[in-house]
Amino acid sequence: xxxxxxxxxxxxxGGGFAGFSAALKSAKLGMETILVEECSTWGGVSCSSMxxxxxxxxxxxxxxxxxxxxxxxxxxxxxxMKKSGYAQMQRIGNVYVLEFVPEALQCYxxxxxxSQKKLKVVFNAKVVKVHSINxxxxxxxxxxxxxxxxxxxxxxxxASGKGEVLYLSGASYDIAPATxxxxxxxxxxxxxxxxxxxxxxxxxxYYLAKAVKSGVLDNHLRFGSWISNNKSxxxxxxxxxxxxxxxxxxxxxxxxxxxxxxxxKNEIEEFKDxxxxxxxxxxxxxEGIRMMGLYVLSEEDVLSGRKFDDGVVKGAxxxxxWHQNHGPRYRYLPRDQYYxxxxxxxxxxxxxxxxxxxxxISVSSRALASTRVTGTCLALGEASAEIAxxxxxx
Length: 394
What we know:
Elements (H helix, E strand, L loop, with lengths): L6 E7 L3 H12 L4 E4 L7 H5 L4 E2 L18 H12 L2 E6 L2 E6 L1 H13 L4 E4 L2 E9 L2 E9 L2 E12 L5 H6 L3 E2 L9 E8 L10 H12 L11 E4 L5 E8 L8 H18 L7 E5 L10 E2 L7 H5 L7 E5 L3 E5 L3 E5 L7 E4 L11 E3 L8 H7 L2 H19 L2
Parallel strand pairs: 1-2, 1-9, 2-6, 9-20
Antiparallel strand pairs: 3-5, 4-5, 7-8, 8-9, 10-15, 11-13, 11-14, 12-13, 16-19, 17-18
Helix pairs in contact: 1-10, 6-7
């Protein structure tokens, strides 16, 4: 790849759902855009952890929704994926989600990005330094293929999920203590599971709880989840992980996952001949650094369905907080209601040209338990690009 020598209107950090839509919209608006992603594929942690549902796309309705809550890229993706036959709306409990084929979603990302001549994408790269003057970020140093390149950027969108630019720039942020954060998760793919398990997936939760009660597993491990693939003998097992401030030890976590798989093989007939065929490359965190923006969205704002004069994204997903001792707890909005995320939640309090999308936006810990889902992140990415465009044309 040629050396970074261009000046970019927008630098998007992170290639998850928020980063994808931020970069795509930026390019569509005619801005010279670069996207930097640490991994080698699209979709971020959501795809590497084998998620099969896009949550937060639809209104919170008793009846089947006619369309997505937000328009733009969110609606375009939903309609195109459904039309192609690679996605379908499903009701799970009280909410509607979009179930998708992961490989087809990757193709969707690639197809739409490749059509944009003003968009450059760099995988296996990360930001290592932020250069700023007078509350304006001017350059980013990016490590790629063991070389460090410095690029000039007029605006920056942190869609990393981990707040990489926020942290490196010295921008103010908030983060809950590790003991108060939501449970993280780690995923493994298991092959050779008998299809009859689909009819009684509660067996998995029963035996996890039984193992915790007998002292074989720690308490938080009973809050795992199992999702069967309806078209094969595969499924994804997610185990809960206690959040920490230091680096996770993947070897230790994978050993724990193998222990749980062996337990299921011994206790559940459908797992008897199964094997682990894939370990996720990283832990999926539900909560991390949150930017201190011009406004901090609160739990009360979410549950009351509050609207704002500068509202840019609609949300209706419940507050889904994964408590370390009690597991997932849900608090719902009234039916057919939604809240708005104001533009101010996407704008840094410290830098004029730094914006956030996805999990990094300016919200409280509890509000994040609603705003963090992928459907909302898609809309947040698009909104952040529009804010960057307005800033450059102010």
